[in-house]
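Cross-posting from the modeling subforum.

Setting up a comparison between two proteins and wanted a second pair of eyes on the formatting. Protein 1 (sequence, then structure tokens):
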Amino acid sequence: MTIRRTAPRYAALGAVLAASLVLAACSSDDGTADTTAADTTTEATDEDTTEESTDDTSADDTTAADTTNDDDVATAVDVVTGCEEIAALFTTDGPANPDLPDPESSAVCDGDTIVITSNGIPDYTYIETSPGPPSAQDLTYEIPAEPTVADDTTDVPLIGALGVTLAGIPIYGPTEGTGGDVGSIDGILMECGSHNGPTGFHLHLVGTSETTDCDFSPDEIASGPQLLGYAFDGYPIYTGNDQYTSSWELTDESLFASDTWAAHTYVEGSGDLDECNGLTDADGNYAYYTTDEFPYVLGCFVGDVEIRGGR
């Protein structure tokens, strides 16, 4: 698995830092997102996180969904619409780890809301990179079946999930522990871009391997965008690792391992995607796309969002 950076790579952190951040954990114990990426001056704990966001919205009146790359509008993807149709997508590929519980993922419609339940067990081979194997969780997430563009963007959680894969695995942001980039710690992630934490298994980015079974094979990633899951604002998340580049640039490498949001700056037009790591395709459909570069999945939420459920 390779994490690309827009500035020269610096030496990997020592074992002491790696161990401390693993213990610090990637997630809070509840399902709310009290801490946002914009809040870079607060302290996180291993238990309930009580940081206050400095600002949950962007100051720019133009939303990310209003912006497209004029030189390279995304090829249209097959966007699934309708509550029942989207709910039917949430399933697993079946057991992949004889020593773990069988993976479970399903969804039902409750009015215009899709209710997703999962036990958080991966349906691909688990490789231990942190202490202890994944245990079954009781996860419930809700997303709107018909997302709407918000007046302003909303920051992704600094700690906790921002979305969920079709197989029911929580998707986290680019931060590990209290705000350092997950890519600053060598060996903390499986090649698939995921790992286990104190409160369960989760994914930080899309990784591929020629030897390890992941969500998608390298050939699938190269062939075009693949539907990974959904963000909590209801917009789909597709793989874009071989198709698109992020417009975030590493401008202060000294902060990469301690405050990755402060270390990066969004530079409009420098890549293919907008500030939220999304793009409007040729058919006018907005979606987020994963990238090899920061922020890996989402840079912000473009839609109206209420983060609840799960952790």
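Protein 2 (same layout):
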Amino acid sequence: MIRDDRFYAFIVARTSRSRAHIRRICVHKRWLKAGALMLVAVLGGLIYGFYGLTQQAQHLRIDRENQKLRAENEKQKQELQNLNNRVDAVEDASRKLAEMSGVQKDAPPARGQGGPARPIDSAAALAVLVAKTERLEREMHTYEELLRSRGMTPSIWPVSGKLETGLGPRRNPFGGRGFEYHEGQDIDAAYGTTVLVAASGTVTIAGWQRGYGNVVYVDHGAGLSTRYGHLSQIDVKIGQTVTRGQAIGLVGSTGRSTGPHLHYEVRINNQPVNPRQYLPGAER
């Protein structure tokens, strides 16, 4: 490079096989400085633009992450609210079932509270509520099973009336000196009195049977069954599902009977047991 006061001179040499080519290029100082400044400006603009695009992309990414976090937070809040509502509903149902089943479910007594505390996050709150819901649902299942078992166990009088001959040996009611074993409980009642099933179950026999006359057998499950004899009318059919307290017939005097009354039996594994233990308030 050859330099003078006003110009910068650049000599460019190019050679080939036969000759050499030399070219001289002169550039004014002002143009060279202007070009350098322009190059610096262009490079600066490119760097600034790249930095700006990078920052913009980062801001967009942060905004998307914030939106996602806000959405997740709202979702967790909604889940918490839904779970709280479910806990309240399950707790209310559990309390009602406890009352129906006769189980005392008192609220725990209030005690002193205090001490250091720290806030819990949504995930921890959800876990606590889920555990509480599962516990309450287990309680509900227990109460339902208790209600079901109680519903399947004879626990009401099939008719109101005076208790006559009970389970055990007795003199032949039709005369003679002989004794016989009475397999149930006779309850004195007027002809046509409604007979109620003592527990929920399924009708297995509904018709005439020797000795019983018109009789209804009900299977309550778990080997437990009841029989209602000497009916004047039968209001259920074989295979029908009945619920405790449902009318199944009317008092009569059919079969081997000396007068209107209900012959009531309770059996476990087809063996007769004392019905009085299933009649509330009855002397045993």
